[in-house]
Structures are given as structure tokens and as C-alpha cells.
Amino acid sequence: MSAAAPAAAPSAALPALVSDTALIFGRYARQTLKSRFQMLFGILMPLLYLLFFGPLLTDLPLGSRGDSWQVLVPGLLLQLGLFGASYTGFAVLIDKQSGVVERMRVTPVSRLALLLGRVLRDAALFVFQAVLLIGAALAMGLRAPVVGVLIGLAFVAVLTVSLASLSYALAVKVNTPQEFGPTINALTMPSMLLSGLMLPMSLAPGWLDALSHVMPFRYLVDAVRAAFVGDYASPQMLYGTLVGLGFAALTMGIGTRVFTSAGS
């Protein structure tokens, strides 16, 4: 009878992890719902690009890549995830300075749940903002299949989970916003410029197009653009899915390791 006890532990741990994750998710979701400014402010930059940059692309010859909105909107969706999720770690810095993180660590709540609850809240928030952005794009002339739009939202969620995990892990390791902010800026700006968020990198000079292939976000952008024209079986969709899932697994692994080892 005593030998069966260790085998039952993993099965008992999973419900506890789910419960703890739901608890942390609920805590931060309620905070978010109380702040309409936080919920809506994140779409400001993509919305400005949509309003003031999108009309400039209407006469650009894009060929089989789709019309200007089918090219621009997928990039703006992932821009929303890129910049929004990358800066979520600032919340951990605030919690560290106010002692919230230390108080949570001495509770029975799983440390992994402290990460998962936050990340899932972020994914829900940015998918909601992406829906609002798509609504504005539809009003301006975007035409895309429903399945393609849903795929685009799924990619936003995957990118958010990936980058929020890295952002929180970095915030645990550094002590001040002065360390965190410049590090994030140094990573997000090259990511934006080399991912082809505004225009396909295939339109760039050969050397720049080749360089952009080392940036994983490029594959996600190309996949969402393929989805928005209904090309679900394209190589771009396959590569984007594989890179997105692989990147999410890697970053979640890093975030999990940092959160579970911090302070131990």
C-alpha cells in the first residue's frame, strides 16, 4: 500500500496546478477588467498604423500576397502581441518592489501557477484587443475568411504566451525598470524591423530578406498572411505553425524554470 503513494502524487498535483492557475488568472483578470484604459490602450499604436499607414498601401502591387489590408492587418495583429507581451514583465517588477511576489511565494500556491495564471490573462487580453483591431480593419475594407481570422487570433495567443513568459522570466532576474526597459527595447525593435510586420520581407533587397529568416516572428507573420487569403495548406502556414509552437515550448520552459527556481 505504501508503494502506491508516490505514483498518486503527480495525478494529485495536476488538479492543484489547474486550481492555482485559475486562482491567479482570476486575480489578474479582475484587475484588468477594472482598468478600461489598460484594456484599450494597447491597440492604440496598431490602430494608428491601420488608420494612417494602411491607406498608403492601397496602390502597392502585392500580387498573390493579397490586397493591402490582408498584408497589413496580420502584421498589426502580431505587432500587438510583440510589443504588448514583451512589456508585461513591468508588472512583476512592480509586484517585487511592493512585496507581492514574496508574499505569494510563501503561500501554498504553485510557483508554476504564478506564471501560468499571468500568461493566460495576457493571452486573453491581447486576443480581445486583436478582435477590436480586426473590427476596425473590417470597417476600413479588410476582407478575410472567418477561418483565417480565427487562425490569426490563435497566432496572437501563441505569440503572447511565448513573449510574456520570457518577459516575466527577465523581470524575475532583474531588479529595476532601468535594467528591464532597455533590454526589451533592444530585442523588440530588431524583431519588428526584421519580421516584415508592415510589408512582406520578400519585397526587401535580397540580403535583408535572407537576414530576416533568422527571426522566428517572420514565419508567424507569413503564416497569418497566408491564412488571411485562405491559403491554409501553404508552406508558410506549416513553417509558421511549427516555429510558433516550438518557440512557445522553449519560452514556456525558460519561464517555468525561472519561476520555479527563483528564491529557492
Tell me what the structure shows:
- The protein is an all-alpha fold and 264 residues long.
- The chain is built from twelve helices and no strands.
- Mean pLDDT is 85; it is low at 1-8.
Topology of helices and strands:
Blueprint: H1 5-33, H2 36-41, H3 44-52, H4 68-86, H5 89-98, H6 100-105, H7 111-140, H8 146-173, H9 177-195, H10 206-212, H11 216-228, H12 235-261
Helix pairs in contact: 1-7, 3-4, 3-7, 4-7, 4-8, 4-9, 4-11, 5-8, 7-8, 7-12, 8-11, 8-12, 9-11, 11-12
Concise account of the structure shown:
With 264 residues, the chain is an all-alpha fold.
- Work out the helicity level: over 70%
Shape: globular
Number of strands: 0
Low-pLDDT sequence parts: 1-8
The helix/strand order is: HHHHHHHHHHHH
The biggest beta sheet, please?
none
Fraction in beta strands: under 5%
Q: Which structural category do the helix and sheet elements fall into?
A: mainly alpha
- Report how far the terminal alpha carbons are from each other: 32 Å
Give the rounded overall mean pLDDT. 85
Radius of gyration: 20 Å
Could you list some keywords that capture this structure?
mainly alpha; disordered N terminus; 264 residues
